[in-house]
Amino acid sequence: MAKKLKALAKHDENLAATIRDSANQIWLAGLGAFAKAQAEGQKVFDALVAEGQRIQEETKTAADERISEIKNRGVGAWDKLEKVFEDRVARALHSLNVPTRKDIDTLSKRVAELTEATNKLMDEKPARKATHAK
Fold first, then answer.
1. Count of H helices and E strands in the chain?
2. Sign of CA pseudo-dihedral 25, 28, 34, 35
3. What is the pTM of this model?
């Protein structure tokens, strides 16, 4: 039995040494991973920040383009609405026989022509009287 106990004790010493070696390797691997993460961590962080800035710029550009499209559609719709309103007002005024700006301009031009013709006739009238009086 003593032999068995000695063999068991030797086996336990080998097992303890193996466990101690494994624990030491695990500890060293953890320290190595920590050191590597510290060294590489700043590089990874900087790369992530740069990528985030790029994505933000792309998103802002896309959003600005979309807003511009929507704004242009709104301006077009507003122009159409304004045209429809102007046409309806013009039809309503026409049905009430209210002269348009074009009508007034035409009449103003005609009045100016008639005034000029009347002035010419008035200037000729005294000349005729003078000719008949002699």
1. 2, 0
2. negative
3. 0.35
